[in-house]
What does this fold into?
Amino acid sequence: MNTLHFLQHYWWALVSLLGAILVFLLFVQGLQSLLLKTAGDKASKDLVVKYAGHKWEITFTTLVTFGGAAFASFPLFYSTSFGGAYWLWMAILFLFVIQAVSFEYRDAAGNLLGTRTYEIFLFLNGALGSFLLGVAVATLFSGGSFIMEKTAITDADSPAISYWTNGWHGLEGLLNPFNLLLGLVVYFAARTLALLFIISKAEQNQVPAFVEKCRKQLPVVAGIFVLLFVAFALWLCLRSGYRSIDGAMTEVPFVYWNTLWTRPWMLAILVFGVIYVLFGLIRQLLGKGERYNFYWVGTGVILAVWAVLMSAGFGGNAYFISNYDPEMSLTLANSSSSLFTLRVMAIVSIAIPFVIAYIAWAWRKLR
Amino acid sequence: MDSLINLSRMQFALTAMYHWLFVPLTLGLGFIIAFMETRYYRTGDEFWKKMTQFWMKLFAINFAIGIATGIILEFEFGTNWSNYSWFVGDIFGAPLAIEGIFAFFMESTFFAVMYFGWEKVSKKAHLVSTWLTAIGTNLSAVWILIANSWMQYPTGMAFNPDTARNEMVDFWSVVFSPVAINKILHTVTNAYVLAAVVVIGVSAWFLLKNREQLLARKSIKIATIFGFVSLLVLIFTGDGSAYNVAKVQPMKLAAMEGLYDGENGAPLVAFGILNPEKDICEDPEVAEDPYLFEISFPKMLSLLATREMDGFVPGINDIIRGGYEFTDREGNTYIEPSFDEKKAQGTLAVHALKAYQDAKKSGDQAAMDQARTILDENFQYFGYHYIEEPEDLVPNVPLTFYAFHLMVSLGMFFLLLFVLYFWAERKNKLENQRWLLWLGIISIPLVYICSQSGWIVAEVGRQPWTIQNLLPVNASISGVESDHVLTTLILFGVLFTTLLAAELHIMFKQINKGA
It folds into this structure.
């Protein structure tokens, strides 16, 4: 394994980890999705906004850093996916803009649009934002309708190196059942974590009736989450995909299962993730360790998503398949930054544990 | 194609300008708040805590919308400038990622502690969090400004014909480029001046209303000193900026000054009205005067641009025609090629790239080597291949010229404002000078206009280039249909304007409420 090959995989693993942490942190969106119905009265709403309001910046920053890291390490993905699936990403961005202001503006005097509007903004971000992020991530497996030709830059009349082949620019992904399934998995994961988060704070909670409501809702929401995740995992393992073999894109049946199976450490991460999730949920259903089940399930979600995302790109897999022409698909090898840049970024990444440490400190202090 | 380019530019400009409405206040106010809290920490006086919390509330209202517009900017590099993202992503992406890892997490994490943690962490930990929030917001600006400076002065990279993109070869050259250092200092001190003027303006309003007088006077004292020192650095780095622009973007300097025909001992226009009839490359016999009216300082533009009273400053026409002696930032002196010559070289480079890739496909190493040599020899003008006509090389002169002069004039005005406030505060005469208090309030919109003008000079003045000489806007865009970009442009326009209105309304209410 040469250095470039190693660093491409190192960065794919890191970007995947950021994506996995982002999915866990979407519990903030899960909280917001409770706003319009579950948290019906003012006290419950205030509580939800307070909990989400203390944490939303970390989720937001993780999303931004996920984008920045993807740009720095795999600029061709950034260029092809964002420039092509224009509407899908724009929809996500709109939903995150309206979230960012709503916590501060919701209760502020003179907020012009009224408290209810900002609550709707938060709800939309919570429900649709998490769902659409899941749909966007699903395109790593289901691909996109793009043409990508790096040499197009030499054509002065039409220098764009990538085009989407239809006018829907990513919205057509909403018609793909696989994408929809992952969107729903992410939404229900966020909501499950949100309910667990509220329950974990039951001792300091001023609105016990709301916590009770969350407890009652959890088995249904968590049950749907687990069922959908199992369905997704099975579908993923049964899917065929493309892999770069001897310089040509070759269709490989069960490609993601094959990637996991041939890398026992990756499969182990996935298995441990699932075990953690189930352990946390079962403990919760048995009424044990309420304060910590959020962290058990959260850790499980991070591990499971991390393994799933890594499987998209490892093993020479095409992690962004061109459904127009598979030869144009993106792999870690053909879409990454140069060895020099990846090396610089790898040195920078040494600081990540330090960043995680101070976030953990702040999290603990603001509990 | 043209409408797509212009709409993409408009959308990016709209987002950047809205972003820059909110960010400068947080950059400067962060340090002002940190200083106030330090006073609280040292004295234990509750007054300083109350004061810190008042300004912190305004900081928080502003902070969220700054973050919101920031995320759009980052992702628009991909959505609207996808060619750019690949062509230079190997270099440009790194500062963005480092900004995320080092700065965003720092500011957002410690902002939460600063804002919500008064009762949850120790006094010392809270103070440290406030300082780290201020440092984090400024670090964030540093990295994005490094990235921006690199676009204006590409350095530390090499073109790789195998991947058809530029690749980083010297990280420190990107980070410590002289253009970047000057730009960072100039831009953040501009933000400090803005924050200082806002603090003075809000405090002046309190004094006019006979409210929060102690808070207002103390705030004015801090803001005046902070603003004055920042403005001195701003002026000093402004001079450095002009020098850098003269060396690396001479067309921008020519547009800033409305200079069509260069000369030795060129005057600096202090105030002027441009002649709308003026055009590029006119017949000298019938050429229009570039100004309808102007007041100039003799030889000062030459001094600014070349550090010599009689140095030659090229005008727009000279840059298009070439043929004059030019010394670049590295000290190399050469005869500047004309637009036609640069375009020919750019075309040679692009064709050589195509030939290289064709030769690579057919496995012809000799042809690859030959194409590579031609590419390397002509690469410095690669982007000229995409520029059709000489006039496409010229940025919007009136916009750049007026924005530049407005920025400089307002900068001088703020120097006077700080001196007046410093004097009045020292002499205990602030409350009696109602005109001065009103001047402070009026200065708030003026400082925003000044700050925005600076961005217009920097960004409009460098058109048509996204990467100076290497990639123009028409070769940087995504393959999206223009009506889609128009739709998102309208949506962003409506959303940002609505949120700005809400933000201002909340700010006014909060200020009215007092500490």
Summary: Chain A touches chain B through 74 residues (CB under 8 Å). Chain A has a mean pLDDT of 93. Residues 3-365 of chain A form one domain. Chain A is about 70% helix and 5% strand.
